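Subject: two folds for Thursday's group meeting

Dear M.,

Sorry for the delay on this. The cluster queue was jammed most of the week, so I only got both jobs back this morning. I'm pasting them in the order they finished. Each block is the input sequence followed by the predicted structure tokens. Could you check whether the formatting survives your parser before we put anything on slides? The first protein is the one we discussed after the seminar.
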Amino acid sequence: MTKGSIHLKISVFLLLSMFFLSGAKVPVKSGGRVTHLSGTANVKLKQIVIPGQSVITGKTGRVELTFSDGSRLRIGPASNFQLVLHNPAQQRTVAKLAQGSLWSKIKPGKGKKIMVQGRHSTAAVMGTTYALSVNNTQTSTTVLEGNVGVHRPFEFDTLQTADQALNLAPSTFAAPTAPPPSGPPQVIEKPFHQIPNPVKVVPGPYEVSPDQWLQIIQNQRINMRDNGQAQIETIDPKALASADEWFQWNQRMDTQTVKTE
């Protein structure tokens, strides 16, 4: 080994040491790592699903994605999920669930905005545990912990329009409680040219206007159909878990720790 090569190796070592000892941060990777895979799916274990990629599962397929902040998202059997946008530095995420089921446990964070769009509605969260299911007739959002803002679906085909749609998501969930519904579905409206706080709702039928967010709280479910027709109901988590194997499995998975690397 020549003196030149020895000096080069020492220089590289010193530079790396200075980098790590200075407290410099390694950039956070975009995307979610596959930390569980069972059944059939178009991804592999430990693969990183990046923005623009889809996760498609077979009849028995189940996939878990774990993100750099510790948030976890599980895709159920016969599902079609797409990660549209994920910017860890700005804490902004947009995804689509075209068909199937999804369970998401989001770690709270100041300024965090996450939007998952189903066929008939969009869910905006900042830190919560909720489930989403999509079929041909309705999109159901079930809140197990925290709060979720629900809106009629947005139209976005590019990263730019997805980011713009995320700007329309509420920043807080402070809102007055709406009066109990009676008779025909209620029409919930708002003044234009502003992003309103989500309106808290009680069980019953609603007709959601194109610009309104509804606040769905813990142990509530909203079933949204075409044109904003919605039904909100109270759920019993224990009864639901005892009757639904998908819920049982996700609750068990939530108690397990997972590493992203």
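Second protein, same layout:
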Amino acid sequence: MPKLPLNPLFCQPSPKLPLRFIVIVPFVLQIIATVGLVGYLSFTNGKRAIKDLANQLQDEITARIQQKLNIFLDTPHLVNQLNVNAIRLNQLNLQEINDVERHLWQQIQSFDSIGVIGITSTSGSMIAVSRQDNNKFNIIITDESTEGELQEYATNAQGVRTNLTKVVPEYDFRLRPWYQDGIATGKAGWGEMFKSLIDERVEIMATQPVVNNDNNAIALVSATLTLSQLHDFLKQLKISKSGEAFILNRYGQLIASSATSESFIKNNGNLELIDAFNSNDPLVNSASQHLKDRFEDLNQI
């Protein structure tokens, strides 16, 4: 039986690949795969390294801000402790008004961040020195000689009173919340925000009572920061262009911010701090909300 001829389509000889192609292509494919894998790993590791570096920089910035803020807020308590020690060691006699004035006038010049330093005696006198915008210092006093008035005096280069600049009639510091709270707590602490009767600046005061050997309060020392000082301090901190620094109290109220000039509103003549959770600033709002969601109670931080 004769054989049928095969279809020429299936009997064409296979094309011969050059030996160079057969040898080189597998190596090229391996190299491409290796380079691609190395590139991918490098890209992934690079992203991780950049993220780690960014986190480290953020942590360092946060640590520096925390350190500077601690120093800033600890300074009023340091000043108060120095004055408590001076009184207890009899280096400062509260009955010698001129000596107390001179002591406070000299002292405030050593602490640029302090707005007012004062000593209030439970026997009925209060002496303070306030920092002015022109970097001069005024003396504020009320005692028997002022006949119930709170008086402010400008001073010369030696710290001696010159002209009378302000008078608040019928002033009794014993009725002021900062004095009542400072004596009642019996320890160092911060008072509530208030508006100064002298220059109408919004201030926050650190106080510490001075007690005698019978544990009775004989005086209250104080050092005051203005809220504008807190705002200015936060604005001077070196933060990223899109970042902000702000201070909240334990109730979630905004004390100061690097992005705003005021953290309070006036309601029927009373000053009220802004609730950070309802702030118009998106960063403050989201950050405070995150803290609230994470800790529920800010006292837990």
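Two things I noticed about the second structure. Residues 71-226 form a domain with the Beta-Lactamase fold (CATH 3.30.450.20). The first strand starts at residue 116 and ends at 121.

Cheers,
T.
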